[in-house]
Specification:
Elements (H helix, E strand, L loop, with lengths): L8 E2 L25 E4 L5 E2 L10 E8 L4 E12 H13 L7 E6 L4 E5 H4 L5 E6 L2 E2 L9 E3 L12 E7 L31 H8 L3 H19 L4
Parallel strand pairs: 1-5, 2-11
Antiparallel strand pairs: 2-3, 4-5, 5-8, 6-7, 6-11, 8-9, 8-10
Bound molecules: ligand MTE and molybdenum atom.
Length: 230
């Protein structure tokens, strides 16, 4: 097995995780799944209306949170973003040629962005299954982005919409700007802007336990409220 990327440590289980303001927020809509494409496009569209015409893919990859925990060998299933782009988004929405940035928004209000070229990498998926089961609420139901070469914070759960914007489009990330690197590539330790990766490792590591507990407790409350899905 290959070594983990710089500064990462293997975590035995896969926790529900994120920015604590989102711990108590949950998706509102599951069925039918809709993911809207909007922004600098001629027409908007709902990707999931035609998604079953695409090839379903299975992919085993590691997942790396910026706070330094990593989980190995998660098997996702869904659709390659590159296929979605070529076969649905391009023909149906005709994005502007200068729209080189994608803003991904979640049903819980979370958001982040990636350059279009990063999103077109062959391992980037819109995933609706994890380890042979429908994606659960903890890990992003009904559908999430999986971009294994990028830190967890680019892997938006409960995906609601994708906006095409010009490369230099300034949007407000879900976190402080210094925490959201425009690319966040794990191999290059692009944990954030302003501060180097090795320093952020040390600042983030002590936050893991408490964040994990907060997310777990809020999920437990959600389960009691809804008593079904999660
Ligand atoms: N909608 C939403 N997506 C999100 C987050 C979030 O809080 N809300 N947190 C991000 C972060 S920081 C991480 S590490 C991963 C965690 O995914 P998991 O809960 O499946 O472990 O989700 C990412 N995507
Ligand atoms: Mo994260």
């Amino acid at each position: 097995m290959s070594d983990l990327p710089p500064g990462q440590q293997e975590h035995a289980d896969f926790p529900r995780f994120g920015l604590t303001p989102y711990a108590s927020r949950f998706p509102r809509s599951f069925d039918p799944v809709t993911v809207t494409v909007q922004g600098d496009v001629e027409n908007s569209c709902d990707i999931f209306k035609d998604i079953s015409t695409l090839e379903r893919v299975f992919q085993t990859s590691d997942f790396h949170c910026v706070t330094t925990w990593s989980v190995r060998n998660l098997t996702w299933s869904g659709y390659r973003f590159a296929d979605v782009y070529e076969q649905i988004i391009k023909p149906q929405t005709r994005p502007d040629a200068n729209a080189g940035k994608l803003v991904f928004r979640s049903q819980d209000g979370y958001r982040t962005a990636l350059p279009l070229e990063d999103a077109l990498a062959p391992d980037v998926l819109l995933a609706d299954r994890l380890n042979d089961k429908p994606l659960c609420v903890a890990h992003g139901a009904p559908v999430r982005l999986i971009a294994p070469a990028h830190y967890g914070y680019k892997n938006v759960k409960h995906l609601k919409s994708i906006e095409f914007r010009p490369k230099d489009y300034a949007y407000r990330p879900a976190m402080f700007r210094f925490m959201d690197h425009p690319r966040a590539r794990v191999a290059h330790e692009e944990r954030g802007t302003t501060f180097p990766g090795w320093l952020l490792r040390r600042l983030y590591r002590p936050l893991i336990g408490r964040t994990q507990r907060t997310f777990r407790d809020e999920l437990e409350r959600y389960r009691q409220r809804t008593a079904d899905r999660a």
